[in-house]
Design a protein that fits this description.
Elements: H1 20-27, H2 34-43, H3 54-62, H4 67-83, H5 87-93, H6 105-122, H7 131-156, H8 161-179, H9 184-198, H10 206-236, H11 246-255, E1 264-266, E2 269-271, H12 273-284, H13 295-299, H14 318-337, H15 344-355, H16 362-391, H17 401-408, H18 411-424
Antiparallel strand pairs: 1-2
């Protein structure tokens, strides 16, 4: 039997640099992997690509397919590169060194560079440069490679199991100290938990499971919050051209854009970042000296739905149709305030109407996308935690939603660190 060919680079779940598809899925909940992008390319009739069904595309990216099918998919990719005239871009973002097994850094750099180039082709502002963002990703990817190689090498040496684990422990502690903002105590506890979980024959106690889960979540928070703070530091350099309202200017300068939108627990109820975002919009775009606008008034800034999507019963005059259209807008806004990902064009038109001619919709668009991703993430964690507690009730004594929200809500500390590094000119972790 011929060897199967895998189109995509396999992801690793190691949270020091989480899979890039995790973030993409929060931003675009219909995009679940490379196979989704390949399928979307096929749906573009102008490209005239060979058809490969969705299940086969998923197998090609995860488990592998026959060389014949792989050749068809690769031919489609070459055709897209030629027709979209992105050969130069592809050459720039293609890695020149071998990808280290069990790392995600290379894919992060490729996707982020490609996304920036595509965004610059479509956005009307000046060309966007993100030096701090790519510096962070580059350092993190390098540290990830160092850590993974150190662990691989430790497993290969001729030594007792405890000696191997000691070398892995030292490598983990060193990388965490240099490249994360975790506290010394967190590094000590979490690194020990990772090693204990790797020790052959180790009993998986509830305490150990809880510490491993806390470690995984804390590392992902550290990565995403450092990434966002670096990105916002880049956006801060565009401050003069962003046309920000006073409230948005303060939010960017002093809060890193998102510092006021942390999830909250009020009497056990989770208040999500998207809920807080639209509450912030009520005040941020109200006229000075006036009462904040209502959600009913805000909904009128959504694009008017098509008549075919406006539901009315029986005979209806223009007033009935208008009322139904307004109800559709209010319903759509309610969905957005939950965790529904707004379509890009609908969100753009809404924010352009909401901000008016006086202000730009650029930063509000970014804030909305981040808030939606955050909400998806924290709700996903809540669901997972509930499932784990059902399986292991004693886990609730060590890990609960309050701990997750508190850990998640440390973004202001990351923004303060990013601003301090930017001011001093010193390289960050």
């Amino acid at each position: 039997m011929a060897e199967k060919v895998i189109i995509d680079t396999p992801d690793t779940l190691f949270p020091f640099m989480p899979p890039v598809w995790e973030l993409i899925g929060w931003i675009d909940d219909k995009c679940t992997g490379m196979h989704t992008l390949l399928h979307r390319m096929q749906e573009d009739n102008d490209l005239d690509l060979a058809r490969v069904d969705r299940k086969t595309l998923r197998k090609a990216c995860q488990d592998g397919v026959s060389p014949r099918i792989a050749e068809r998919i690769e031919s489609n990719l070459h055709k897209v590169v030629e027709q979209k005239n992105v050969t130069e871009l592809l050459n720039r973002i293609t890695p020149t060194e071998p990808v280290v097994r069990d790392t995600n850094g290379t894919k992060w750099l490729m996707f982020s560079q490609g996304l920036l180039e595509v965004s610059n082709l479509s956005q009307p502002m000046q060309r966007l440069e993100l030096p701090r963002t790519f510096t962070f990703l580059g350092k993190r990817a390098k540290a990830e490679k160092i850590l993974i190689l150190a662990c691989h090498n430790a497993r290969k040496i001729e030594a007792l199991p405890e000696e191997k684990l000691a070398k892995m422990h030292a490598a983990i502690c060193e990388v965490f100290q240099q490249y994360t903002l975790l506290s010394p105590q967190e590094i000590r506890v979490y690194s020990a938990a990772m090693i204990d979980a790797s020790r052959p024959g180790q009993t998986r106690t509830i305490d150990l499971i809880a510490e491993v889960l806390k470690c995984i979540f804390s590392l992902r928070v550290d990565f995403y919050h450092q990434l966002l703070a670096s990105f916002m530091a880049d956006i801060l350099q565009l401050r003069e051209s962003l046309k920000l309202s006073p409230r948005l200017d303060d939010a960017l300068v002093n809060q890193g854009g998102m510092g006021q939108l942390m999830p909250l627990l009020e009497e056990g109820k989770l208040i999500t970042p998207t809920n807080r975002l639209y509450e912030f919009w009520l005040d941020a775009f109200s006229s000075t000296g006036e009462q904040p606008m209502s959600y009913r008034a805000m909904a009128m800034h959504l694009p008017r739905p098509l008549d075919v999507r406006t539901r009315v019963k029986g005979k209806a005059d223009l007033q009935d149709i208008q009322y139904a259209a307004d109800e559709t807008r209010r319903s759509k806004l309610k969905e957005w305030r939950g965790s529904t990902v707004p379509e890009a064009d609908h969100l753009t038109k809404f924010l352009e109407s909401l901000t008016g001619e006086a202000y730009s919709a650029f930063l509000p668009f970014i804030m909305t996308r981040v808030a939606t991703a955050w909400t998806k993430w924290i709700e996903q964690e809540r669901t997972l935690l509930n499932q784990l507690v059902q399986e292991h009730p004693a886990l609730a004594e060590n890990l609960d939603l309050e701990w997750l929200v508190e850990r998640f809500s440390r973004y202001p500390q990351y923004w303060a660190h990013a601003k301090a590094q930017d001011t001093s000119g010193e390289p960050g972790p």
